[in-house]
Design a protein that fits this description.
With 144 residues, the protein is an alpha/beta fold. Helix content is 30%, strand content 17%. The strands form two sheets. The protein has a four-stranded parallel β-sheet, with helices on one face. β3 and β4 form a beta hairpin.
Length: 144
């Protein structure tokens, strides 16, 4: 019996580019699918300790949909690093000023909070409109 663990080598990993249209997609469901693609969990050579994921481009981030009362109740938190420096931003203001950050924060929360997770997060590009500047990479549409 051969009990050797497979470890993907850096040269064995083929990184693909995918483009996702976020129009009328539910935020949490979209973010979890994107996180799986970024981590490489849809590939046969997936290993939890290696970065084997693909690049993901999200367009139309301003047309994302959320369910329930989150439009009125959801709040984003950040801290300045100083005492009493907790800052809050309601979902409505975040959507009108920085719609791309909504998807970025949702996906970031679903990736590992380690060096590997930060490396995987760098492969995500989010754009508010339907234009992106990665046509040279020939991205394939990803249906979720």
């Amino acid at each position: 019996m051969n009990n050797i663990t497979y470890t993907p080598k850096a040269g064995d990993v083929e990184r693909l580019w995918f483009v996702v249209d976020a129009t009328d997609k539910v935020l949490g469901r979209l973010a979890s699918e994107i996180a799986q693609v970024l981590r490489g969990k849809r590939k046969p050579q997936y290993a939890p300790h290696a970065d084997v994921g693909d690049h993901v481009i999200v367009i139309n981030a301003e047309k994302i949909r959320i369910t329930g009362n989150k439009a009125e109740q959801k709040v984003y938190y950040r801290h300045t690093g100083y005492p009493g420096g907790l800052r809050t931003t309601p979902y409505s203001r975040m959507r009108e000023r920085h719609p791309d950050r909504i998807i970025r924060k949702a996906v970031q929360g679903m990736l590992p909070h380690t060096k590997l997770g930060r490396l995987q997060f760098k492969k995500l590009r989010v754009y508010a409109g339907d234009e992106h500047r990665h046509e040279a990479q020939n991205p394939q549409p990803l249906e979720l």
